[in-house]
Amino acid sequence: VCDGWLNGFRFTFSHQRQSESQDRIRANRRQDLSGFELDTYAADLRLESQSPLGKLIYGATASWGFTDSWRANYDAAGHFTGNDIQGPVGDGARTRQYDVYLQDEFALGERWRVLAGVRYSHQNVDIARVEDPVTGRPFGIEDEWDSVVGNLRVDVALDPAQHTHLFAGISQAF
Q1: Which terminus of the chain has fewer CB atoms gathered within 10 Å of its CB, N or C?
Q2: Which residues are CB-neighbours of 66 under 8 A, at least 6 positions away?
Q3: Mean pLDDT of 37-46
Q4: Whole-number Cα distances in Å, 50 to 56, 57, 114
Q5: Are 102 and 118 in contact (CB under 8 A)?
Q6: CA gyration radius for the chain?
Q7: Whole-angstrom Cα distance, residue 7 to residue 16?
Q8: Helices H, strands E: what count in the chain?
Q9: How confident is the model at residue 2 (pLDDT cuts 50, 70, 90)?
Q10: Residue 159 carries which DSSP code?
Q11: Beta bridge partners of 90
């Protein structure tokens, strides 16, 4: 695809929408309508180059999430009695995640393949409204995390025609 140090690349942009709603009627005929909508946008840049051992794969990803949550309450006669602070998840949540990664895939002889990699991630969350389970009052949450994780995977062909493989791996999660 490319000449020189870069053998190939791929850029991906995506949008995912998830929504959920619940209409609950209790034994005493009270009703609550609740739900959430989550929009997630993501971008990924993946690059490939030759390494001294094999194929080097590296790149960066970013994702942004936006969540709105609600709950409306009604009495047994069907009259609106008010909105709760949040629905099934915190309301007004905004998440951001940024990652960079590097992995090398190489052969060890005719039948063995090894993939070793490392990833750095930064996650940030800002939730505008969450209901305190003790006091019932609203509060917000802001936090962020960083992590470095690694992985090692091995694939061995069990027959000369390479129809049957044994795969093993170890990795960390963030």
Answers
A1: N
A2: 38, 39, 40, 93, 94
A3: 98
A4: 6, 9, 15
A5: yes
A6: 24
A7: 30
A8: 0, 8
A9: low
A10: S
A11: none
